[in-house]
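Extended Data, panel c. Modelled sequence:
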Amino acid sequence: MGLKLREAKGWKFFWIPAFYILLCVLFLGTVVLFGNGFQVYGFGEITFKPEDILTNINAAMSATGAPAMSKLPIHPVALLITQIISSFLAGVIINTIPTLGEELGWRGFLFNETKQMGFWKSNLLIGIIWGIWHAPVILQGHNYPDHPVVGVFMMILFCIPLGYIMSYLRIKTNSVLAPALFHAALNAIGGNLMMYTKNVDNLIGGVAGLAGVITGLAILLLIVIFDRKTLKYS
């Protein structure tokens, strides 16, 4: 299942923060390209205007009953960098146990049971199953509150390239803890990245939307270009 720490390639765990930062940067770049640049419907746009960011932050805080903020504590770019770093640390500390529970299923059990199919077919199947697994909460309005039915299919599309990346981390480190840690950090950063967007349709411009799918495919393409030899099971 990939839980034996003595078998893990510990020094290769640096790929986790590297991929995490790459995902954040590429997601923001994707929205800038298709939203700010080409103005494709649904992608919205990236904004660093304090008033836009405050609106998003206060909307999120009001849902929890927290008092509204009157101004940003630091410059928007510095705030984004701080949130990226703090979300990684908080995600790893708080989310790893529940995400490890998931990853033992996907990059643990199913990883072993389907590896004879080869990297590409195996992870296509795992990604589809992983996406379908989210269906009950998606149908209740999670992730895509305005598109609960179509959102199920978008989540499947999102999980497929992400699943390939997770399995790459599993192979690279020889440990299921690597995808669990990456998964934990990803769960923590999604909402924070959206604080820097406006006029977004979550189905298209959200982290788990089409923008996220494009981001995942871009990372996968980089893996294929620079480290294709790892994309196989020994």
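The chain has nine helices and two strands. This feature is highlighted in the accompanying rendering.
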